[in-house]
Amino acid sequence: MYSIAIGPDGRGLAKAFKRSAESGDLEPINFQEAVGEGMCHINLDRTERWLLGASYGDAMLSLFPLSEVGEIKPLVQSIGLEGEGSKVLPDRQEVPHAHSIYTDPSNRYAFVCDLGMDRIWLYRFDAKRGRLEVAETPFVQTEAGSGPRHLTFHGNGRWIYALNELNGTVAHYDWEAENGVLEPLEVCSTLPEEFEKPNISAEILVHPSNRFLYASNRGHDSLAVFKISESDGSLEPIQHVPTCGEHPRNFVISPDGGLLAVANRDSNNIVYFAVDGESGELAALEAVEGVPACTCVRLVSS
């Protein structure tokens, strides 16, 4: 397992752990220092030989090799996002903010959501050398003030859904990996029409069946459920369900698609939901209380 942390000097850290199959306990393996401060997101590439990180505060990207036993090797590349923030929301968008990083299903490109500049950056990724290079089309500009935060991939490798934190929307894109072209298709709200209070969105995932999409709302404190059209990938809102807690951040769906768990940071609980395999709708099951300021949750098979 890999996680992020903040060092005593404010520098971002990437940490590796080994999990006991018997007890589930985690044993530290090692850690490496990232470039920049406040690393907020890490991801494995598709080969699981590289660890990619994004630092929010100073918009820096970090790339680490991984050993065969899961150890994180020293940093091999760092990149800074350059430019001015869009300033639509001055307190959040004065400067670039790298919020997340992902490799695409082909593992030949990496996407970086930049909340500060309202951009999704594109990089070519060389999995043999461990190298990121700016793509021919370096970025896609999103709606001003939208604040791209996270994204998720449909199983067909072509449809990408990006969650915009600041205006509470999901943007649907068509991805052509052969040419490195990301084409905007539609934008849908994650909120009910009647809701007018402050809200910021957090996480987004496609269901393992590729028939449904889920997004979390902080403020409305809900999970938005969408049906994905099999013909063109367009979204149809079908449910807004309370998360039974406050400020839902990350959530995860089990590999079989039958269970969803969401981390409610401000109410210190993790809530489990049953996922209806036919409709995609959610029904609350139970909560695990007393999980301090939980911001990320993972399900691990026994």
Main attributes?
302 residues; mainly beta; Methylamine Dehydrogenase, Chain H; four-stranded antiparallel β-sheet; 23 strands; 54% strand
Provide a descriptive summary of the structure in words.
Helix content is 0%, strand content 54%. It is globular. It has no helices and 23 strands. The protein is an all-beta fold and 302 residues long. It has a domain at 2-189: 7 Propeller (Methylamine Dehydrogenase, Chain H). The strands form six sheets. A four-stranded antiparallel beta sheet has the order 4-5-6-7, with no helix packed on it. A four-stranded antiparallel beta sheet has the order 8-9-10-11, with no helix packed on it. Strands 12-13-14-15 form a four-stranded antiparallel beta sheet, with no helix packed on it.
